[in-house]
Amino acid sequence: MTIQRKNDTASIFLSATHEDAESICAGMVTEADFTLTGQMMEFTLSSQSISDIRARWNSLLRGIVASEQALKAIRESR
Question: Is the pTM of this model over 0.85?
Answer without folding.
Answer: no
